[in-house]
Amino acid sequence: MSRVTDWTSLASLEPTIALGPLDGRYRGAVAPLVDHLSEPALNRMRLHVEVEWFIHLCETRAVPGARALTADEVALLRGIPAGFDADGIAEHADFERVTVHDVKAIEYVIKARIKGTSLEPLSELVHFACTSEDINNLSYALMVKGAVQDVWLPAASALVDDVADLARKAKATPMLSRTHGQTATPTTLGKEFAVLAHRLGRQLRRVEGQEYLGKINGATGTFGAHTAAVPATDWIEVSRTFVEGLGLTWNPLTTQIESHDWQAELYADVARFGRILHNLATDVWTYVSLGYFAQAAVKGAIGSSAMPHKINPIRFENAEANLEISAALFDTLGATLVTSRLQRDLTDSSSQRNIGTAFGHSLLAIDNVRRGLKALTVNEAALAADLDASWEVLAEPIQSAMRAAAVAGVEGMENPYERLKELTRGQQIDSAAIQAFVGGLELPAETSARLAALTPGTYVGLAEKLVDDFLL
């Protein structure tokens, strides 16, 4: 057997091989995030923020000598981030190799693009009075906002719609509940999915209402360089209008960094959405194992290399794993980003480069759950068989009716719970046993008839109405 060191180096192959699954095996499912949360997307957004700051300084005449820009000049500037492509990525990398500073390289890219144009005399407005974090915090806010609103929320919303559709279709399909894994008061399959859709939808509304904060106020948040250079300008107003003009919420009080509290809030909500979705995945997995759902057989697919009959609920298992990874990353980001030593340290810089990975695993899980749900068919026969084998669940409504009768003054209703417990606990009883017990009670005729007609399959309370009335 050859030694590992004798093998071909996979790291040397072209095209390059991805180290992680999101950029390899699962690239197709997460590719839309690349435009928002990749390293080139970060540099493109930095270009955008720098260019817009340049334009804003000119529009507000914040610096003596700044002037109104022509439409062509504005187009030239905005064309820099808009046209950021493979050549732009390489150009930025060339500058960064020299500067060993990614944001300074952005400044040099812009200055190189406007060299020899009418904008060159204004070139020192590029990155004027800025610290790198002025550019970074705004870039990340815009990137995350775009990723959430353009990619994650549409996918998550479509998933919630899928769950809600299943809830409505199965709202009247009776199902045996299992509390603590044991037979319990019946419900409907649709009502249980309505619960999940309702929970997921509530988290979506929190994410939809998220604020995205930004700041541009210098090296320690004091506008020190601004006021030293141009004391007559109202820099607070220039900062506010710039940040709000980008579509962000202005944060007036910061250190060198924007405090990232909004990120922690957002990631907690997205992680919580994922944990609820994880609950859905484990429930569906269990329903499949109980035979409540049949799974579509995909032509040519193999469920087991040894057992030909297998159709495994792999979409839900894949989702579980990815949701756990995503939640762990979001939890770490939320915990790390809210702390910065004194006025600045760089822990956030490395941490934030993993935002895309966290959203990627979440998006992959959403995709898997949606695909898994589409392959399910409700097995009503299995649901009905389970109900028909569980007549003991009617102990609850019978003892409750006896309690009500006792309160109304009906004789012979003593110890209803204890009597039903003796009849049913640890016992497997059938319809005849229930009928005999109800028949032996001297209940009012209407109550007796109602209980005699009750079956496990009809004992579902207001489940259907709850779906109709409260599922948005």
UniProtKB/TrEMBL annotation:
Pathway involvement of the protein, from the record: Purine metabolism; IMP biosynthesis via de novo pathway; 5-amino-1-(5-phospho-D-ribosyl)imidazole-4-carboxamide from 5-amino-1-(5-phospho-D-ribosyl)imidazole-4-carboxylate: step 2/2; Purine metabolism; AMP biosynthesis via de novo pathway; AMP from IMP: step 2/2
Keywords: Lyase, Purine biosynthesis
Superkingdom of the source species: Bacteria
EC number: 4.3.2.2
Short name of any one Pfam family annotated for the protein: Lyase_1
InterPro entries given in the database record: Fumarase/histidase_N, Fumarate_lyase_CS, Fumarate_lyase_fam, Fumarate_lyase_N, L-Aspartase-like, Pur_lyase, PurB_bact, PurB_C
Reaction catalysed by this enzyme: (2S)-2-[5-amino-1-(5-phospho-beta-D-ribosyl)imidazole-4-carboxamido]succinate = 5-amino-1-(5-phospho-beta-D-ribosyl)imidazole-4-carboxamide + fumarate; N(6)-(1,2-dicarboxyethyl)-AMP = fumarate + AMP
Fumarate lyase N-terminal domain sequence ranges: 24-319
Span of domain Adenylosuccinate lyase PurB C-terminal: 340-460
MF (Gene Ontology): lyase activity
Top-level EC class: lyase
Similarity comment: Belongs to the lyase 1 family. Adenylosuccinate lyase subfamily.
Function: Catalyzes two reactions in de novo purine nucleotide biosynthesis. Catalyzes the breakdown of 5-aminoimidazole- (N-succinylocarboxamide) ribotide (SAICAR or 2-[5-amino-1-(5-phospho-beta-D-ribosyl)imidazole-4-carboxamido]succinate) to 5-aminoimidazole-4-carboxamide ribotide (AICAR or 5-amino-1-(5-phospho-beta-D-ribosyl)imidazole-4-carboxamide) and fumarate, and of adenylosuccinate (ADS or N(6)-(1,2-dicarboxyethyl)-AMP) to adenosine monophosphate (AMP) and fumarate.
Name assigned to this protein: Adenylosuccinate lyase
Species: Demequina litoralis
